[in-house]
Every structure is written in structure tokens, then in C-alpha cells.
Amino acid sequence: MPLLPRSEIKQVVVCQHGGIDYAELEALGIAPQDVVDFSANLNPFGPPPAVVEALNNVGCELSEAISHYPDSEASHLRHCLAEKLGIGVGNILVGSGSTELIRLAALAYFGKGDRVLIIEPTFGEYQVACQIAGASLITQQTKRENDFRLSIYETIQLINQHRPKGIFICNPNNPTGRYFSREDFEKILDVTMDSLVVLDEAYISFVDNAWSSLNLAVHSPLPAEALSMTKEQRSNLLVLRSMTKDYGMAGLRLGYGVATEEIIATLRRICPPWNVNALAQRAGIIAVSEEEYWQRCQVDIREARKYLVAELSNLGLPPLPSETNFFLVEVGDAFWFRRELLKRKVLVRDCTSFGLPQYVRIAPRTLPECQRLIATIKEVWNR
Fold first, then answer.
1. For 271-292, how does the pLDDT look when each residue is reduced to its tens digit (9 = 90+)?
2. Are 28 and 101 members of one domain?
3. Across 333-360, average pLDDT
4. Which residue range forms the structural domain that includes residue 187?
5. Peptide bond into 47 cis (omega under 30)
6. Cβ contact 131:12 at 8 Å
7. Which of 62, 90, 360, 361 gives 175 a disulfide partner, CB atoms 3.0 to 4.6 angstroms apart?
8. Position 48 confidence tier, pLDDT thresholds 50, 70, 90
9. Is the dihedral of CA 118, 122, 123, 125 positive or negative?
10. Euclidean distance between CA atoms 64 and 57, whole angstroms
11. Residue 1: inside a domain, yes or no?
């Protein structure tokens, strides 16, 4: 009898992501360093100089760093994050990217037959995590005719109807870039006291005037006197954030979760030991203090985004509304469009895997690189 995996694993669909596909480039005879990548939603200016300098100057310390196990608790980094965010160290868990934390949450809280609500189109790893855990999916579709805005009324209807064990919410959402208010989110929390709500804020740093969710994760969403229950009974929110998007460190894999100490302790029980390597921890510690660098980058990213929106609109390809740095563009055949640009060493994200085969997603890079993108699109679009 053949060796077979769990039945749930056979149902898992591998999630596609943005970024360079090295095997694809090899087949096309293109060197990765020659590609200008607009498909990944990252800070195009790279890591803070202090991070680069520290990693370049590791020198003799490198052998010391890699010959010992890293701090399995990421203690120093957690203390730095706690001080910056104004929360307790026990409310933070550091992960090898926020994707690791998504899977930990699903494994810790969802089981076979549990219902989990996902609002689509969105990041595909939520579905993968639920499939691994054996959970059943309930989906809510945001619609193009409403510019992919979330209907909170419909969300609440689905929650009341299905009473899901968990809800994954990406805010701002990937790939649509839509961002909804604290008021609307609190409406969701009010009807999900028995559910784990995972709020993925991987791109929150790219949103202007973003509202803070951390006090909702660490404290009760409503005053204690408003409910005949304890704070712990309402503590069902896990906030996830990335440190690789805004600090341009995707190759190091670094993210963190914020929740009550009870949720963090639960996730820690199943978290692999030494899950964040020593160099990633060191880079994160430095990056936390580089707020001024990030603010400078934001100014240039906004300028590049404004340029792209104007130029694409002039070409008859107006980007859809978005509250973050990336946006969707309707091009008809996303597979063809992406492939033609890639032949010219420019990469955008084909959104077919999101269920949007007529759209590409574009994240601005430096202004000269954005000018190259527009020139390449003109060449392809006017053929």
C-alpha cells in the first residue's frame, strides 16, 4: 500500500507569490539582477543604511553569529518592538516572516471541520494555512463594480450565519490595496467573540493616516462595564505585521504578531525553536530605530506612485483606487501582459492566482525605474 499524506494535505494548493521566479528567468536567458521588479510590494530603496552597514561589517563576528543557535525567544528584538509600540514584551511573537505566523495561528486554533471566513481576493496563504489545518473555508467576494471595497454588512451577515472559528482579514488588502476604517473593523469584532480574528497588517506602513489596531489586540475592544464578561473573554484578536516590506529586507524573512499573552503563549508552544535566524534578528533590532529613514522613503514612494497613476491613466490604463503603495491595473490578459514586459526585463504581478486574470498589480519603485516601466508598457501596449 503506498505511503499517503493526510487527506487534508492532498487538498493544499501551492500559493503563487510576487517576486522573481528564478527558474523562469533561466529559461528565458535573463539574469535576475537585470530585472526591474514591480511585482513585490516592498520599499524600493532597500534596507536602512545602518542595517546594510552592520551586516557588511559583521566580519569576524559572523562566525560567532552562525556557529551558535540564535536566541529562540528573539528577546532583544521583542524588547525593542515592545518599547516602540508601547506594549508588553509578552504580547509579541517574532516569526520568520508573517507567513509563518499565519500557519501557526491556523494550526493552533483550527481543526478538521472548523469554518474559517476569508475575504477575497486576498493573500493566498490564508487558504493554504486553513487547508493544512483541515478547516472548511467560507469566502466573501469583494466586487469590481464596488472598486473592491469591503461590505461590512455582508461580512456580519456571513459571520452570524456560519459562526466561523476564525476570520482572516488583510488590511490594507493584498492585492486590491483597499483599507477600511477602525469603526468598520470594530463592528466585525463585536460579532466575533468566539472566533480568532487574524488582522494582517503587512502593508500598514504604506498607508497614510493609518489607525492603530494594537490596543484592540492587547485590550478589550469595549469598556469592561459594557459587557458582563472579562477582558480575556473578548481577547480574540491577533495582529500580524511584516518588517520586510517597509524596511526592504524580504530576503531575511522577519515579521511579528501582537495579541494577548494567552494567544502569544499558545502560538509559542507550536512555534519551531530558533525560527528567526541571528542575522535577521540583528537587522530587525537596528531597523526598529530607523523611523527617520522610513519617513524619507515614504516621500519618494508617494512621488513615484503619483507619477505612475498619472502616466498609466494617460495610456488608458487607470489604476483602481487603492489606499496603499500598490494598485491593480486592468490590462485584459494579465498573463500575456506580464510575459511581454518580462521579455523586456520588467516584472509586474499577474493576478490570475487571485482570481483576477485581467489584472496586474504594480508597486512603485524609484522614479527612474517607474519611467522605464512606462516606456516599456508603451512599447508593448502600442504594438
1. 999 999 999 999 999 999 998 9
2. no
3. 97
4. 49-287
5. no
6. yes
7. 361
8. very high
9. positive
10. 13
11. no
DSSP 59-92: TTHHHHHHSS---TT-HHHHHHHHHHHTS-GGGE
pLDDT given at position 220: 46
For residue 221, is pLDDT > 60? no
The reported pTM is: 0.93
Short-list 173, 168, 183, CA closest to 237? 168
Boundary of a domain, candidates 222, 255, 287: 287
Count of domains for the chain: 2
- What is d(CA 349, CA 171) in angstroms, rounded to the nearest whole number? 19
- List the one residue out of 99, 44, 97, 122 whose CA is nearest residue 325: 44
Strand residue runs (E) in the chain = 36-37, 92-95, 115-120, 136-141, 166-170, 196-200, 237-242, 255-258, 327-330, 346-347, 349-350, 359-362
Which backbone phi and psi does 228 adopt, to 5 degrees? -90, 60
* CATH classification of the domain holding 326: 3.90.1150.10
CB-CB contact of 197 with 167 (8 Å): yes
Backbone angles phi, psi at 257, to 5 degrees: -120, 145
Secondary structure letter of residue 46 according to DSSP: -
Region 26-35: what's the mean pLDDT? Answer: 95
How far is the C-alpha of 272 from the C-alpha of 103, rounded, in Å? Answer: 12
Q: Do 146 and 176 lie in a common domain?
A: yes
More confident residue, 66 or 273: 273
